[in-house]
Design goal:
Blueprint: H1 3-10, H2 12-28, H3 54-65, H4 87-99, H5 109-125, E1 132-136, H6 139-157, H7 162-165, E2 175-177, H8 182-190, E3 198-200, H9 212-221, E4 227-232, H10 244-251, E5 256-261, E6 286-290, E7 302-306, H11 309-316, H12 346-381, E8 385-387, E9 395-400, H13 407-421, E10 427-431, E11 434-440, H14 448-474
Parallel strand pairs: 2-3, 2-4, 4-5, 5-6
Antiparallel strand pairs: 1-7, 6-7, 8-9, 9-11, 10-11
Helix pairs in contact: 4-12, 5-12, 6-8, 6-11, 12-14, 13-14
């Protein structure tokens, strides 16, 4: 054994304590840490010939990067849709790295952890036991897996085995959606179906949800043609939902695959107030749900649920690998999702689900929604901002109350200053052609005090932008 490995092994307990202390110190300051920083130009790093050992590497990390760490997992990071690791999930994640197991084979306890966690998640989301669940890295790979399985189904409708013959063997491919997430197009590109196979249907007036009549009209114009429909269960701009119950009813009359992208909107199922938005999703063929969003477990973690395990097996099996056994005879998760090797992603979720239960997640979801509505109400009262859509759940979509011709520049400048100050992080978007800002609240730490601080910050930056714009226009 190399001498440095041997020394680290002897000092392992001290190293773990040192790491715990460092992590604990970071988390104790997460409410005060900036959510973004401007980074310096880092000098190139050189691989040492002789290693310095783990303790010295920890010290070097702190010296080189420590002052630049940000509170991405903190209570005022409203960019993208990002949760923050719960204490229980952090413990599970640390243990997942410690035991270093690749869940798959029934003979391993990691398999029991995985199947048990997926069962808990089905209970949390009120999904039938008929859905097979698999962990993947994130919503993108979950959508990829669901659509890959749908592609196999589509091939079968034409008498083609896509897994064996390739995507080119399928003709006249159509994937329909109204307001799909960008990862849907990315998945279609990776699957060889092409972004051009995506047909965008009209939405309801003032909404991002599909106009069901437009879908019916498309079906009428393509009688008997099988297709894939990708439903939105929580759009990124306004958390709008397609009418899944109506889509499920259409499935009884027409031949199509229903994929539901519920990356964070699926958590509506945990709340009696909002679960009606998912009525009918138990009839979907595949469902995407992201764990590192509203479940508040660390990156990277998501789930794909499908009612067609045989089709998944046809796509993802490790055929011909004798050392892995017969895929059809011995269930192994590696034959139902893209990755053969991965960490025990289910363990942080298991810890968090057991630690906080259904009540904990119900309270978390409803608290985030209430705080998002509080933010939206404050923006509506302000003369500097304009809400672009109702606050349906956890996302607030708004813009600056400014001249339309200058709005794009003002929004860009506003976000640059906001991010530079580091109190809150929000992301740019475009809604119905209007340059906009979106704030997504899915963090378990966020409180009313954070919302008060955010509102003050938004007003301050907006006033600065207004003053600066007036100077520029006068000159």
């Amino acid at each position: 054994m190399n001498a440095t490995f041997r020394e680290d092994l002897l000092q392992l307990n001290d190293l773990l304590q040192q790491t715990a202390n460092y992590a604990g110190d970071f988390l104790s300051r997460i409410h005060e840490l900036p959510v973004s920083r401007q980074l310096p130009a880092f000098s190139p790093s050189v691989l040492p010939e002789k290693g310095m050992g783990a303790a010295a590497a920890m010290e070097l990390f702190d010296n080189r990067f420590g002052d630049h760490l940000t509170a991405n997992a903190g209570p005022r990071y409203f960019g993208f849709v990002t949760g923050g690791v719960t204490p229980a999930a952090l413990a599970g994640d640390w243990l997942a790295g410690t035991v270093d197991m690749n869940p798959g084979d029934r003979a391993d306890v990691s398999f029991q952890v995985e199947t048990e966690t997926l069962g808990l998640l089905r209970q949390l989301f009120s999904l039938p036991e008929t859905f097979l669940g698999c962990f993947v890295s994130g919503a993108t790979m979950s959508n990829f897996t669901g659509l890959a399985t749908a592609r196999q189904w589509l091939g079968r409708q034409q008498g083609v085995n896509v897994a064996e013959q390739g995507a080119g063997a399928v003709k006249d491919i159509k994937i329909l959606a109204a307001t799909p997430h960008s990862s849907i197009g990315k998945a279609l590109s990776m699957l060889g179906l092409g972004r051009n196979s995506l047909v965008l249907l009209p939405t309801l007036p003032g909404r991002e949800a599909v106009d069901i009549d437009a879908l019916k009209a498309w079906i009428g114009e393509h009688p008997g043609q099988p297709f894939i429909y990708s439903a939105s269960a929580g759009t990124v701009n306004t958390v709008d939902f397609d009418d899944i119950a109506a889509l499920a009813a259409l499935k009884k009359e027409h031949n199509f695959w229903l994929h539901v992208d519920a990356a964070f909107g699926g958590f509506a199922a945990v709340s009696p107030r909002y679960r009606y938005l998912l009525n009918g999703w138990e009839h979907a063929d595949s469902i995407t749900i992201d764990a590192h969003k509203w479940l508040n477990v660390p990156y990277d973690s998501a789930m794909i649920f499908t009612r067609h395990p045989q089709l998944q097996l046809e796509v993802f099996q490790n055929a011909g690998a004798a050392y892995l056994g017969d895929p059809s005879a011995n269930f192994n998760f590696i034959n139902y999702a893209p990755e053969n090797s991965r960490r025990l992603r289910s363990l942080p979720a298991w810890f968090s689900l057991k630690a906080y239960g259904a009540e904990g997640y119900r309270d978390l979801v409803e608290q985030n929604i209430r705080l998002a509505q509080q933010l939206g109400e404050a923006l509506s009262r302000s003369g500097r901002f304009k809400l672009l859509a109702p606050v349906r759940m956890c996302v607030v979509c708004f813009t600056l109350e400014t001249e339309e011709r200058n709005r794009g520049n003002h929004v860009t400048l506003f976000l640059q200053k906001l991010v530079k100050r580091g109190v809150v992080n929000m992301t740019p978007t475009t809604y119905k052609g209007v340059p906009a800002i979106r704030a997504a609240l899915v963090n378990w730490r966020t409180t009313e005090q954070d919302i008060d601080k955010v509102i003050t910050e938004l007003e301050t930056v907006a006033a600065d932008i207004s003053d600066l714009s007036a100077i520029i226009e006068n000159n």
